[in-house]
Amino acid sequence: MERRVAFATGASRGIGKAACLALARKGFDIVVTARTVKEGEGHVAGPSSRDPHEVGVPGSIEETARLIRACGREALPIRLDLLDPSTIDPAVERTIDEWGRIDLLLNNGIYQGPGLMDHFLDLTIEHMHAIFAGNVFAQTLLTQKVLAHMLKRGGGIIINMTSASARVDPPGPVGEGGWGFAYAASKAAFHRMAVLLHAEHRRDGIRAYNVDPGYTPTESMRALMGKQTDLDAAWGGISPEVTATAIAWLATAPEAEELAGKTISSARLCSERGLIVGQV
To answer: Quick one: which of 34, 74, 188, 216 has the most CB atoms within 10 Å?
Structure first.
């Protein structure tokens, strides 16, 4: 079988880590990228400027790579910081130099830190710049680089992790099930990428998808906000493995081609296709 290579951002924990393992079990070798290289180095800052404390979080690209290899696939861990554009080109170039191809790009990583959960009057322009840098601009640079490679090879798959905040009205303000303006605005901008890629390059063998995981409590969120928050009460929550299963299906199922250019609810897809019985 010809090698298939997936390049994933934000792959040290949460949905990114789970997706890497699901793709590995489907036969992909994985380029594992994130900021945190070694276990114990991970940290995340609070999403509100009123309380921007940092906490340690588990997970690393080395640990994700170890688990991928335990699945019988190859892993290439590379540090990539979405807030440092100088790390993007070298990560893609190293992948192509060492493995020769990228068949799937998973844009999962995002900015994490102050401003995401700020009330409108608390938001600073500096934080808004950082959020757009980590949620829109870095993904644009990375996708342009990978897309150019895919077009030379004759096709590829791009999966973008979107958010309900990009499309729906919040049930209340921050603290009552809602989110900050800068987060929602950046995700709304990012949400337009996949549909435009589909319009421009569907005839070139490019399949682009938006995947909406729904509210997914991750290790970082629990470390910062505890076991129960207003978001839990408003949105419930699903496990990262549900979205990982949906991503793996989109990457490998022949029927997935008919959904290209669409926004996919991972929970709904898993339920309708019977991919995870009793967990969604």
So the answer is: 34
Tens of pLDDT along 99-141? 999 999 999 999 999 999 999 999 999 999 999 999 999 999 9
Cβ atoms of 106 and 156 within 8 Å: the answer is: no
Rounded distance between C-alpha atoms, residue 161 and residue 153, angstroms: 24
Beta-bridge partner residues of 29: 5
Per CATH, the number for 4-273 is 3.40.50.720
Instruction: Determine the Cα–Cα distance for residues 203 and 187; give it in Å rounded to an integer.
Output: 26
Which of 178, 180, 53 is CA-nearest to residue 124?
A: 180
Domain ranges of the chain: 4-273
- DSSP class of residue 10? S
Tens of pLDDT along 258-279?
999 999 999 999 999 999 754 4
In sequence order, what E strands does 121-273 have? 156-161, 206-212, 263-265
pTM tops 0.85: yes
Q: Yes or no: say if 219 and 12 are a contact pair by the CB < 8 Å rule.
A: no
Classify strands 43-45 and 54-56 as parallel, antiparallel or unpaired: antiparallel
What tokens does 199 get?
Answer: 């319009």
Residue recorded with tokens 């921007």: 52
DSSP state of 13: S
3-state secondary structure 50-100: CCCCEEECCCCHHHHHHHHHHCCCCEEEEECCCCCHHHHHHHHHHHHHHHC
H or E element in which residue 108 lies:
none
List Cβ neighbours of 104 (8 Å cut-off, separation of 6 or more). 4, 5, 6, 7, 23, 28, 156, 157, 158, 159, 251
What DSSP character marks residue 135? I
